[in-house]
Amino acid sequence: MISFNGITKRYPSGREALSDLSLEIAAGEMVFLTGHSGAGKSTALKLIGRIELPTRGQLIVNGQSVGGLRNAMIPAYRRRIGMVFQDHKLLHDRSIWDNVALPLIISGTPRRELDKRVRAALDQVGLLGREGSFPVELSSGEQQRVGIARAVVSKPPILIADEPTGNLDPDLALEVMLLFKRFNEVGVTVVIASHDVHLIDQLGYRRISLTGGRLATSTQSQVHA
């Protein structure tokens, strides 16, 4: 499903965020990328989302070489990857319905399907009935749930999340992680960058640790929450 083959990412400043990184993530797997700040976690996710391109090496996602995608193919590629961010990236002048519907509107989903899909996504994250609210009316945890609903409304086979619980207290953080677990249980491949090792250990999924842009360890816990 996702294969990093000798991936190096060097930014124009000269900083090398990833160095000869090789790893495999299977279809339907849920994994955590861990490591200190600057270890390369966010860069790895940006490469999967085709927000950045590798300097060297080959990244294969769903059988496609990400670096080889023509510009015209990128929108369709990104529709198959749901992205969740730490700071939510919600449109604060738009309702929750509008925020969640945005990927569908961009992709040209027929109007008659929009409401059904948006309501189903909000139901999955426990926010059905809040469609008319605005982000400012929601707690930080609820805003993160809206971000997750927006990421899954297109039913992507891959879901990536960059520090999705970084601004949440421990109880809310666990609730959000259990949401990702639920999506994984229905077959979605989930890749989460997180520094919260204690929380990750509670869940018991594979942990890929990066150090200085290189693979340090890959461990599999035996018990899932």
Folded structure, characterized:
With 225 residues, the protein is α/β, with parallel strands linked by helices. The chain folds into two domains: 1-80 and 159-225, P-loop containing nucleotide triphosphate hydrolases (Rossmann fold, 3-Layer(aba) Sandwich); 86-155, no CATH class. It has seven helices and ten strands. The chain has a six-stranded mixed beta sheet with strand order 6-7-8-3-9-10, with helices on both faces. Strands 2-1-4-5 form a four-stranded antiparallel beta sheet, covered by helices on one side. A hairpin with a 5-residue loop joins β1 (2-10) and β2. α3 packs across α4, α3 (96-106) runs parallel beside α5 (140-152) and α4 packs across α5 (140-152). The longest helix has 16 residues, at 170-185. The protein is globular and about 45 Å long. It starts with a strand and ends in a 6-residue tail after the last strand. The relative contact order is 0.20. The model has no long low-confidence stretch (mean pLDDT 92).
